[in-house]
Amino acid sequence: MKSRITRMTAALLAAVLSLSLLVGCKPKKELTRYTTIFYDVFDTVTQVIAYCESEEDFNTQMQALHQDLIAYNQLYDIYNDYDGVVNVKTINENAGKAPVQVDDRILSMLELARQMYDLTGGKINIAMGSVLGIWHDYREAAEKDASEADNTLPTQEELEAAAQHCDINDLVIDEEAKTPKHRKRRIMLSIVSIVLFVVLSAQLSTFSFSVTAAGERGELVAEEYERYRERFDRIEKIGDLEDQGFRLLEDQIFAMPLQKLPEEAVDTTEEPGDEVWFYAALDTRYHRLAVFIADASGQILYKTDQLEANYCYLGEMRQPVKKLASVSFQDVDNDRDTDIILIVQCHNDRGDYQEESYKVGDVLFQDDGNFYRDYRISDKINRFDMNKNPACILNFVRDGRSTEFLYTAETLADLLNHNFNVIEEQSYTRNFEKLGKLKVVLGTYRMAEYDVFMIYLIDEQGNIVWSFQPMEDYDNLYALKGIQGKDLDGDGLKDLVVFAKYSYEGENGELLVDTVCTIYYQRTAGFEKDTDFTENYECTEEDTLEALVTKIRAYWGWQT
Q1: What is d(CA 147, CA 151) in angstroms, rounded to the nearest whole number?
Q2: What pLDDT does 37 receive?
Q3: What are the residues whose beta carbons fall under 8 Å from the beta carbon of 257, sequence distance 6 or more?
Q4: Alpha-carbon span 4 to 74, nearest angstrom
Q5: The pLDDT of residue 177
Q6: What does 245-311 look like in DSSP terms, one character per residue?
Q7: Helices first, then strands: H and E counts in the chain
């Protein structure tokens, strides 16, 4: 039989219920600890621990809890039918056909799912059912036979075809009629990622908990987000921005073509193909970025704040957005519609990147008069440093070139197979004490008109032992002035010093070049980047690599 909820949700539910639900019944007399276990809901073992005045009081509450868990189990089931119950399976079976009237608890779950989609930038998406269903079917087929000889994985073509039906915006909810409906026949709901939150928040709130600070903070964030969304939803014209707490970015207003108007834009005087206007604004309280498409009269045709830059501080409303650094209008996906490439400048005031500025790239794809963002593409753009300029983003999304292999390759052969260009005259072999005999391999990979610079340490078998990215947030390797492997801090271990010039684009589009010295000290478990010498010394055009080595050693109080 197909499992009602995947193992992931089952494990989460069991963990939360068994570890954190210390239920208090009525704190009047001395309380006794009781526990019970349910085996028949959510395909898992559910343990509840409670402190009550009597066993009778405990049993009464557990009976009520068990009945409600059974009800939720049936309502949120995506695989099985139950007499007289309209559940999520029923909704999926009517995808693209007719709306289905459902229980308020399902509507609440779907609304929460939309909020979680927004809060996580699409990382929690209950509309992924068509993709998850493929993996489920393949797993079920594999489990039918004890032999692993015939086990197979889904094809890329199957998964990509199913991924075309995962847009949560195709789920239409009529709250008055209590009817959710799929606009597309093949969209399927998989509530594995959201059911845990619904069950715990809706049902278990009837008990008395020992609330943690984290829980209180989570409630506050949810309340803040609701109030923020109310302000955002009230913006119907560009003139509403200031009243709703948003500051218009005056230098980021551009005309752009919109190939088809949104269906809801019934009152606009614009025609498909006419120019519309792009606007960007910052929420003055939380520093969240929002973009708007409006007609010539300022009427909003499209708006969104679901942007990658608004998820730098996960689980928080306030974000480190400083400005919208770049906007580019191009056909990114070759469908003849004009898409939007965004690059946002952020500056963290805490955490791992405290006091550091960095860029966050994003793409809004135009489709049928609206725009959508694929968080998977945005994630790769930023995780693999393809966010420095619109040309690099375009080279990745449209042309398929990617720097991902620079960070995931395991061997020198992997690098070469992806057209990594080794700078042979600067590469050499050294004995790195604890790490053994290694070859220092320097090279570049071309993205658009930019050279991405990387350094690798390769062992005698061709495996990558360590990698370095000395150019960090610069756009391009302008000139490599040299690299040396010597003991710099006097601990007897060979370190690396890299001396290079890197270019980047200034605020007015001008080409700027910095001369940079980057140092990596060898430690017992690998290498550690210098944060002392480089913060106290600024390289100049007159510096040489040999002179820098002398200065670094003098900084640490020793000479050779």
Answers
A1: 8
A2: 85
A3: 273, 274, 275, 276, 329, 338
A4: 9
A5: 58
A6: TEEE-TT--EEEE-SS--TT--S----TTSEEEEEEEEETTT--EEEEEE-TT-BEEEEE---GGGG
A7: 14, 23
| Pairwise CA distance, residues 359 & 321, whole Å | 10
- Which class for 414: exposed (0-12), middle (13-18), buried (19 or more C-beta within 10 A)? middle
Which residue positions in the chain have pLDDT lower than 70?
1-30, 95-96, 98, 146, 174-219, 260-274, 559-560
**What number of residues does the chain have?**
560
176 token code pair = 């008055």
Crossing angle of helices 156-163 and 129-144, in 10° steps, is: 150
Tokens linked to 234: 């009230």
403 vs 448: CA distance, rounded Å: 11
267 sits in which H/E element: none
Helix locations, 400-497, DSSP H: 404-408, 412-417
**Residue 442 burial (10 A CB sphere; 0-12, 13-18, 19+):** buried
The closest of 117, 118, 140, 138 to 128, measured between CA atoms, is 117
Tokens of 495: 């370190």
Which residue type occupies 44?
Answer: T
Q: Which helix (H) or strand (E) holds 504?
A: strand 495-505
Q: Who contacts 407 (Cβ-Cβ below 8 Å, separation ≥6)?
A: 384, 467
Structure tokens at 89: 């399976």
CA separation (Å) from 233 to 66, 177, 183, 230, 240?
39, 22, 23, 5, 11
Whether the CB-CB separation of 408 and 431 falls below 8 Å is answered with no
Condensed to tens digits (0 to 9), the pLDDT of residues 490-505 reads 999 999 999 999 999 8
Q: Give the separation between CA 85 and CA 70, rounded to whole angstroms.
A: 12
Helix, coil or strand: residue 428 = strand
Structure tokens belonging to residue 281:
């604004």
Let me know: does 317 contact 224? Beta carbons within 8 Å: yes
Query: Which tokens in the block code for residue 210?
Result: 């020992």
Termini Cα distance of the chain: 74
Q: At what angle do helices 390-397 and 375-383 cross, to 10 degrees?
A: 120
Each residue's pLDDT tens digit, 254-272: 999 877 655 555 455 555 5
CB atoms within 10 A of CB 67: 9
Per DSSP, the residues of 323-352 read EEEEEEEE-SSSSSSPEEEEEEEEE-SSST
Per DSSP, helices labelled H in 384-478 are: 390-397, 404-408, 412-417
Distance CA 64, CA 53 (A): 17
512 CB contacts (<8 Å, ≥6 apart)? 503, 504, 505, 506
Query: In the beta sheet, which residues pair with residue 329?
Result: 340
Residues 546, 551, 555: CA angle, nearest 5 degrees: 150
How far apart CA 498 and CA 443 sit, in angstroms, is 13
Rounded Cα–Cα distance for residues 447 and 388 (Å)? 11
Under 8 Å CB-to-CB from 246, ≥6 apart: which residues?
Answer: 235, 281, 282, 283, 284, 290
Show contacts of 249-255: CB within 8 Å, 24+ apart.
Answer: 249/279, 249/280, 249/281, 249/282, 249/323, 249/324, 252/278, 252/279, 252/280, 252/324, 252/327, 253/277, 253/278, 253/279, 253/280, 254/278, 254/327, 254/329
